[in-house]
Amino acid sequence: MLGSSPGAEDFVRAPVAEALLAHDDQVRAECNEKLAAEPAFAADGDARLAWLTERLPDRSPFRLTYPVLREEQPAGNGAFRIPVWCPTTG
Description:
Layout: H1 10-23, H2 25-37, H3 39-43, H4 45-54, E1 65-72, E2 82-89
């Protein structure tokens, strides 16, 4: 339910992952270390792309959140309730 959005195809993710490697020295260094340490990872293009995609900066503050309607009762007689939306992490 809270996985990757549909439509995140490899032909879209690959150039973004390449840009990440080109511009982020820390991710590039971690990737090179992992490539050297794990031959299976180095041989699996899908695993490399998934690994890089997980390290992309999150552009949405609401990623992996869902709204929860919480009702707060005001002080007094409690004749009405005030709905309050608050994002909750999954």
